[in-house]
Amino acid sequence: MNNSPINILLVEDHKLMRVGLKSLFDEIAELEVVSEAETGKEAVEKYKIVHPDIILMDIGLPDISGIEATKKILELNSRAKVIMLTSHISEQEVMDSLHAGACAYVMKDINIEVLRMIIKTVKEGAMWLDPQAVPILREKNCGVVPPRQMSRAMFKEQHANLTQREYEVLKLVVDGKSNNEIAQELTISEHTAKAHVCNIIQKLVVDDRTQAAVKALKEGLV
Questions:
Q1: Which helix (H) or strand (E) holds 50?
Q2: Which of 85, 125, 137, 143 is 20 to 30 A from 92 (CA-CA)?
Q3: How far is the C-alpha of 201 from the C-alpha of 13, rounded, in Å?
Q4: Alpha-carbon gap, residue 193 to 23, rounded angstroms
């Protein structure tokens, strides 16, 4: 088993915020800040040197934005994993972040334990979107075509263990339906609907229904 910590490039122009985050990460053995950057251009250069597992990227930077820096990093390595940090929810920034190839969109006031979970799951290939941003993605999903998007056929092949019924349930999850509403829509019991949702979450290797919906939308499954 690999017990090496997850290496993080921390990109934040506000020193107090940067020092605070680094101090919190210092208390978590499985996470390690291996490099820091104050600007977008510096982030790109630091990425070339340290090749971190995760880039924790502030959106508002003094030279190029975190979104532009993300694009440049993804041009260097299409498998780079960027978590966008923001102090507010902006429809344009949500969409631009996803188009740039970010794996997660996170509010800065997030609980550190939740952020730790997000970093771990993103490292493992999952995606995460702040719940406040999910309605934006659901409304605009037709325009979300990230650079790293799999083809629908490839995604289905990779997740071929999803049953046809689970695909139907997943589509309703993406539509924001509750377990009770899914049950009514498909004429099944609420218990069965809940079981299908739990199976989907497990098979897509995510932590909750919100992440399942985000992953399905971003990968073009529904």
A1: helix 40-50
A2: 125
A3: 36
A4: 43
Strands 31-37 and 54-58: unpaired
pTM over 0.70: no
Tokens of 207: 């932590």
- List pLDDT tens digits, range 173-197: 888 888 999 999 999 998 989 888 8
Distance CA 64, CA 182 (A): 44
Domain of residue 189, CATH code: 1.10.10.10
Cα→Cα distances 79→72, 123, 124, Å: 12, 10, 12
205 and 111 housed in the same domain:
no
Domain identity same for 26 and 123: yes
Closest CA to 32 of 40, 45, 43, 23: 23
